[in-house]
């Protein structure tokens, strides 16, 4: 996978990293964004993961819902015209901003104070994913950034934003919503009468006040529903356009590669532009010695009736190498198995670092492993 060509191509506008938890996805997203900024592009990196790792790696105290510029130390080997901006999604604030942008101040205040709105804006299934699409669409629509890198939540929920438009449309077009929005036959009227079996059953489960709050919310929000669907669908199409690329991140372990296989199959089924797989934290051997050759050398070192080696330092080094070579053999078997299931999918390996990437220098090391040296001079137009 030629990530350098992908990141320097001015036609590339969005890169989405996805993968299970604990595979280095956030670090990968930050390293790709930093690499592209060093190459002269104006980049925004958006994390949906509530962990603080991205802010710490970029040398910021915290991230919020607005992009913050990351101060990049001057480097004569990179294009100083690049910029890096970072933010972390706040789904409630994004929801509030969307309400403010598409309603009057008076109506917005009524919506903010509605208990049903307060509930769905923070805990309704799919709200975070929908708001991630809303924020991505808004960032892309400003035209302020050459490239947007999106770091998605861990595990399979990382692809829930692909379902967000359909899920939200199904919710907004559902029978309950239509009933709540109907001024003549709405639930407010039904609840007030207290006559129907339906009303008694629903009230027993969620309470009459919640039902009334929901009805009031829908009536306040009704004229925004169409805009919800339109913007979500527009962002979904943005994800399918040639200027977008998905990068799956995994580590050479069975569970992570099973998740990577799920992501690959899902993205290919959705016909999303898939760039390839980053296989993170691999263990390439320090020498070309095989496991068998290492064991032979260890046997030759052993002398005397007790079998103790003459050279303890060399014996220790051979033992470490034998363990690493065994690990590498297992990694290669898992990689070959994955590639047999997904032939033709490009793979980029990134060796394990001695410690986590916690600053810009470490992120540049990861970026170099991902994409190679940053090109000197401005990126091609």
Automatic annotation (TrEMBL):
Q: Domain (ArsA/GET3 Anion-transporting ATPase-like): give its ranges.
A: 12-288
Q: Which domain of life is it from?
A: Bacteria
Q: Which GO terms describe its molecular function?
A: ATP binding; ATP hydrolysis activity
InterPro entries recorded: ArsA/GET3_ATPase-like (IPR025723), ATPase_ArsA/GET3 (IPR016300), P-loop_NTPase (IPR027417)
- Bilayer-crossing residues are none
Name the Pfam families on file: ArsA_ATPase (PF02374)
Report what the protein is called. ArsA family ATPase
């Amino acid at each position: 996978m030629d990530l350098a060509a992908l990141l320097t191509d001015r036609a590339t506008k969005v890169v989405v990293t996805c993968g299970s938890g604990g595979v280095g996805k956030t670090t990968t997203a930050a390293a790709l964004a930093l690499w592209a900024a060093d190459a002269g592009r104006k980049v925004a990196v958006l994390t949906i993961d509530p962990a603080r790792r991205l802010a710490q790696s970029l040398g910021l105290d915290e991230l919020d819902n607005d992009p913050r510029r990351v101060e990049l130390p001057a480097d004569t080997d990179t294009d100083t015209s690049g910029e890096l901006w970072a933010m972390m999604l706040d789904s409630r604030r994004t929801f509030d901003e969307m309400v403010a942008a598409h309603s009057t101040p008076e109506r917005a205040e009524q919506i903010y104070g509605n208990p049903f709105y307060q509930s769905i804006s923070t805990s309704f299934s799919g709200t975070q994913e929908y708001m991630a699409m809303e924020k991505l669409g808004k960032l892309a629509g400003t035209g302020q950034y050459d490239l947007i890198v999106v770091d998605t939540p861990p595990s399979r929920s990382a692809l829930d934003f692909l379902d967000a438009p359909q899920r939200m449309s199904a919710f907004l077009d559902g029978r309950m919503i239509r009933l709540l929005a109907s001024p003549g036959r709405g639930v407010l009227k039904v609840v007030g009468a207290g006559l129907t079996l339906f009303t008694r059953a629903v009230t027993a489960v969620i309470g009459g006040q919640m039902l009334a709050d929901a009805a009031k919310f829908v009536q306040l929000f009704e004229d925004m529903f169409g805009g919800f669907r339109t913007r979500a669908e527009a962002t979904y199409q943005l994800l399918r356009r040639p200027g977008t690329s998905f990068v799956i991140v995994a580590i050479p372990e069975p569970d992570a590669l099973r998740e990577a296989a799920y992501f690959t199959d899902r993205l290919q089924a959705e016909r999303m532009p898939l760039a390839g797989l980053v296989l993170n934290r691999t263990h390439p051997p320090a020498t070309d010695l095989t496991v068998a050759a290492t064991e032979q050398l260890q046997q030759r070192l052993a002398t005397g009736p007790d079998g103790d080696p003459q050279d303890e330092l060399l014996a220790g080094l051979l033992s470490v190498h034998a363990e690493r070579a065994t690990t590498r053999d297992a990694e290669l078997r898992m990689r070959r198995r994955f590639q047999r299931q997904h032939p033709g999918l490009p793979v980029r390996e990134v060796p394990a670092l001695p410690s986590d990437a916690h600053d810009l220098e470490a992120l540049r090391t990861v970026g170099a492993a991902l994409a190679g040296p940053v090109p000197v001079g401005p990126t091609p137009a």
